[in-house]
Design brief:
Strand content of chain A: 5-15%
Number of strands of chain A: 10
Distance between the termini of chain A: 53 Å
Oligomer: heterodimer
Strand content of chain B: under 5%
Number of strands of chain B: 2
Number of helices of chain A: 17
Strand order of the largest sheet of chain B: 1-2
Structural class of chain B: mainly alpha
Order of helices and strands of chain B: HHEEHHHHHHHHHHHH
Largest sheet of chain B: 2 strands, antiparallel
Shape of chain B: flat
């Protein structure tokens, strides 16, 4: 039995040693920026796999390398968007985190509060020609803590309403521009439009894109029309059971199960494939209409009972604190997001820079959109609008909200009762 | 000790001119056999240590800690994760869904596999084609299989389309608790029933035909043949398939992740999916580890219970 005991001892020793080493502190110290030529490799994780976007990123990186001999290579690692945060955090947990990463807005509080991101303000301010004050304060708010910027919100994309004018015409309805001119660009009238489309053409009326009865927080683009928010401004109290939210859900429930203006659960309609008359989506999705076989328009979100409103969605780019080369990562980020490169990126992502948020710049970089659409939809939707409310433990919150809201998607749902149950489910998380 | 080992000192020789006690050679026949054995099992042993025992030890260790991946902090929380487990308001629903899923799966999979095996355990034209058809889902990618079923089960999908041609309005399969569970179980059964069918088929072909012939002479009916001859003789295989089906049911993940994401509500959130959510979606690695240990204990207990019960019903085991 002795060899068996020895083997067990060695195994346990190895396991404990490995466990202790796995739970140790961060890796090697940061390499100085005056590193030896070809000694620094940087990796940036993204959720885009768009070949044109990746080609643009690569061209910016190649240009950066010409003036920075210490950079051996810069790679852009496209992770599947559905599992992006899971994959990123698993990489970090495994000690194989990237040097830079895109961060979705829903994860902003977790990433910023945890200290996972490297502070950027000093690096950006020290970069010649960066023009740090050009960043819109409102847009940077979500990514700032104690006056320090932790991520650059490279995409600040307003939610807008895309319209398929061919479907509206087939349903015997005015075009989207005519509806707006007639003062019918509001949720109440559009519900009737959606219902008529469904009845006359069999196509779907209005889709809140990506909601799919699985991501309820995307309904903010509708809730805000009723002045509703999922939680209080300080993030401590659930407001799902408020009269505003109840009004928004009663409208939506009637639209789904009554008038059928919205497609019901268990279907997968797609506006961009010509499956519906209207869809709420971010303006950055306009690129999907490049080869559209139907007449389309893009307009601001319809007004709600509380009047006109806007909603923006953000994505930011950050350098990770535990990168092997945090200084090099921050410096590359400063270059990647300088005014010239931000202008290039604006063709895909509305920038957070005041100097670039004008019709001239955005029209030049977005050939799919007319100057009128840029001015009256994109730029108008970006005026005086704070980022969406976000909270730490976003995935846990989103899951509990989804689970509690599921009974809402039945024909005979008790709308106020379901909303109260949402608060019961999330209050313990908000109270922390 | 073998005879060779006993006599080996007497067979030792010394070099010419050397004096002193005769030493036994290190590589005795017994040691050589033992080393050969160890050499054969070493790769498997390394795999078990590296990929089973070591992770298991880590999971146990993590269950007493909380690991904030983003902050890079790792701190001991004592038994807090176990207290959370006992007080988790969602856990009873998760365990109920897990139980329903496992019972339905085993209750449908085993009889169906046995029925298919009995039907296909005969010689005849085209029988191999049928066997291949029923086995083929086993080798199909589980995600591809589930995605296709997902389209079929949509409210306006293929299944409701077929029902509509008969004037039946089908339910919204994946949006109500009972139908969502039925859909997930059915998808899983059709994917895996072929494997158990093949195991039963092999067992059936090992049953001596003269036993059937003798029983038929005595006037046994088909039901008696099945109950008195077939089932007892294939009971070791039956035990094996029940164990692997129960363990498999507790590991079912892809079907749920793709089809329902645990919904609606928690109706299809089985324990392994809940572990995944806690650890990889909510970043509660400590609590996820505690739930993993609960799953481990459940699998262990069920397997041990079945192993002990085999003496009562498995042929040659009493």
């Amino acid at each position: 039995m002795k060899p068996a005991k020895t083997l067990t001892g060695v195994t346990l020793l190895a396991a404990v040693s490995l466990a202790l080493s796995a739970c140790g502190g961060p890796g090697p110290a940061a390499a100085p920026t005056s590193a030896a030529p070809g000694s620094v490799s940087l990796r940036l994780t993204t959720w885009t796999a768009d070949a044109n976007q990746l080609a643009l990123f690569k061209s910016i990186a190649d240009e950066y390398k010409t003036t920075h001999p210490e950079i051996k290579d810069i790679t852009f690692d496209s992770l599947p968007s559905a599992d992006y945060t899971k994959t990123l955090t698993t990489q970090i947990a495994g000690g194989n985190g990237p040097d830079l990463a895109w961060v979705p807005e829903s994860d902003a509080p977790d990433f910023v509060e945890s200290g996972a991101l490297a502070p950027l303000t000093d690096t950006f301010k020290a970069t010649p020609g960066y023009n740090y004050d050009d960043l819109k304060t409102d847009f940077a708010k979500l990514w700032t803590r104690d006056g320090e910027l932790y991520a650059y919100p490279f995409s600040t994309s307003p939610f807008v309403m895309f319209a398929n004018d061919d479907i509206l015409k087939n349903a015997g309805l005015p075009s989207s521009a005519e509806l707006k001119a007639q003062g019918k660009w509001n949720w109440n009238d559009l519900s009737k439009v959606g219902a008529q489309v469904h009845e006359k053409t069999g196509k779907d009326g209005i889709i809140i894109r990506d909601f799919n009865y699985a991501q309820p927080l995307l309904l903010l683009s509708l809730w805000k029309g009723w002045g509703a928010s999922p939680w209080s401004e300080d993030g401590k109290k659930c407001t799902f059971a408020s009269p505003e939210m109840t009004g928004a859900f009663e409208y939506l429930h009637e639209g789904i199960f009554g008038s059928k203006a919205f497609p019901g659960p268990g279907t997968s309609p797609d506006f961009f494939a010509g499956g519906s008359a209207l869809t709420v989506s971010q303006i950055s999705r306009a690129s999907l209409l490049k080869n559209a076989q139907f007449g389309w328009n893009v307009l601001p979100l319809p007004s709600g009972p509380k009047g006109d409103y806007s909603v923006i969605g953000q994505a930011a780019m950050a350098a990770l604190q535990n990168s092997k080369n945090p200084e090099a990562a921050k410096q590359f980020l400063a270059y990647f997001t300088n005014p010239d490169n931000s202008r290039q990126l604006a063709q895909y992502f509305p920038p957070p820079r005041t100097s670039l948020l004008n019709a001239e710049t955005l029209t030049a970089t977005n050939p799919l959109l007319s100057k009128d659409q840029i001015q009256n939809t994109v730029i108008k939707s970006l005026e005086n609008v704070p980022p969406k409310p976000q909270h730490t433990s976003s995935a846990d919150l989103a899951s509990k909200i989804k689970v509690a809201l599921d009974p809402m998607w039945q024909e005979n749902a008790d709308v106020p009762g379901v909303l109260k149950s949402v608060c019961t489910a999330i209050d313990p998380i908000l109270a922390v | 000790m073998s005879l060779i080992d006993k006599v080996s000192p007497a067979r030792e020789t010394t070099r010419a001119g050397e004096r002193g006690p005769k030493r036994a050679p290190f590589l005795t026949s017994r040691r050589r056999d033992a080393l050969t054995g160890y050499a054969f099992i070493t790769p498997q042993l390394l795999g078990i240590v590296g990929f089973v025992l070591f992770p298991l030890a880590l999971v146990f260790y993590y269950s007493f800690n909380e690991w904030n991946v983003l902050a890079g902090t790792f701190k001991s929380v004592g038994g807090a994760n176990y207290e959370k487990l006992l007080a988790d308001p969602q856990l009873p629903s998760v365990l109920a869904a897990t139980t329903v899923f496992s019972i339905c799966l085993v209750g449908i999979n085993i009889p169906l596999a046995l029925l298919l095996a009995v039907l296909l355990n005969r010689q005849g034209k085209g029988i191999t084609v049928f066997r291949t058809i029923f086995f083929s889902p086993v080798v199909v990618s589980v995600v591809a299989w589930t995605l296709v079923w997902g389209f079929m089960l949509q409210d306006n999908g293929g299944i409701n389309g077929i029902l509509q041609t008969f004037g039946i309005t089908g339910p919204n399969w994946l949006r109500t608790g009972p139908t969502a569970m039925a859909a997930v179980v059915t998808t899983y059964v059709f994917k895996n029933v072929g494997l158990n069918m093949v195991l039963f088929l092999a067992a059936l072909q090992g049953v001596p035909s003269e036993l059937y012939e003798a029983a038929k002479v005595d006037g046994a009916t088909r039901w008696v043949l099945l109950r008195r001859i077939t089932l007892p003789l294939i009971s070791p295989t039956l035990l094996l398939t029940i164990i692997i089906t129960i363990v498999g049911s507790l590991q079912a993940f892809a079907q749920i992740a793709v089809l329902t994401q645990g919904g609606p509500g928690l109706s299809t959130t089985v324990l392994v999916y809940y572990v995944f959510q806690q650890a990889f979606e909510f970043h509660h690695f400590g609590y996820g580890s505690t739930l993993s240990l609960l799953l481990f204990v459940i699998v262990l207990v069920l397997t041990v219970v079945q192993w002990q019960m085999r003496k009562k019903w498995v042929f040659h085991e009493n």
